[in-house]
Amino acid sequence: MTRRTPFLAANWKLHLGPAESARLASDIRVRTADLRDVTIAIFPTALSITAVVDALRGSSIGVGPQEIEAAPIGAWTGANSATLCRAAGCEFALVGHSERRQHYGETSQRCNQRLFAAFAAGLVPIYCVGETLGERRAGRVEQVVGDQLSAGLDRLESDQIASLTLAYEPVWAIGTGETATPEQAQQVHAFIRSWLAARIGPTLAGQVRIQYGGSVKPSNAAEILSQPDVDGALVGGASLDAANFAAIAMQAISP
Ligand code: 13P
Question: What is the pLDDT of residues 55-84, one digit of tens each?
């Protein structure tokens, strides 16, 4: 079986201006400096990206925007592009977070354009998928996640799909304190990997990192991260505290 390096990401959402972001990033840098064999990335607000890039210069922690526009530059008031984020020192980009889908009408079709834009600019995307509580109760998890994958990854080359990261974030577990059980997470992650195997073959599918997101904290991280198809976490609230985030990262290495 392919060994996948765990990937821990901090999504700071709409928190922290430049000075506070730089302080927290520096603190995370210090607390995770001794960790090997883990990928770490921080997604601050767009306003704080350059401050965080500066604070992390020379470290192995990557930075990225929480969403990108598909167009590289132009008359897109209020947008960030992959091209300009790359110029600002980013290496990663979140695409299709459920809060974007919910509050900004983001669709998987538009995410598909954003994924192409990320690759064109040299950013590694994390494409987010996940069902709502109603969809889960209706037994539609695989249909919903499968549709998000089909539309979002449409026409991408196999090697592009192999190189991106997926984040499974059940909407009902985000910011609610509710976490998917390790079994629930593993079940959907295994479904995602089998979907990938059908699309790009089992070998490449075995390389794709799939993060879990939704109320991950130090007290529940080990259980979730020890699941065979869970390759890291996309952490919201708990990532606003350096000690908590570092404690989660530690458990990603030796779950
Ligand atoms: P919480 O960890 O606050 O539930 O947020 C999860 C999330 O949305 C990460 O992208």
Answer: 999 999 999 999 999 999 999 999 999 999
Q: pTM score, two decimals?
A: 0.97
- 115 Cβ closer than 6 Å to some ligand 1 atom: no
- Binding site membership of 48 for ligand 1 (Cβ less than 6 Å): no
Q: Which residues contact 61 (CB under 8 A, 6 or more apart)?
A: 25, 28, 29, 32, 40, 41, 42
Q: State if residue 95 touches ligand 1 by the CB under 6 angstroms criterion.
A: no
Which one, of 147, 131, 148, lies nearest residue 139 by Cα?
131
3-class SS at 138?
Answer: coil
What domains appear along the chain, each with residue ranges and CATH number? Answer: 7-253 (3.20.20.70)
Best residue for ligand 1 mutational test, from 92, 95, 174 (most atoms within 8 Å of Cβ): 174
Answer for the pair 16, 45: CB distance below 8 angstroms, yes or no.
yes
How many A from CA of 74 to the centre of ligand 1?
31
Alpha carbons 42 and 61: distance in angstroms, whole number: 7
Query: Which atom of ligand 1 lies closest to the CA of 97?
Result: 10
Please give the backbone phi and psi of residue 155, each rounded to the nearest 5 degrees, phi first.
Answer: 65, 0
Which residue in the block uniquely carries the two structure tokens 């984040």?
167
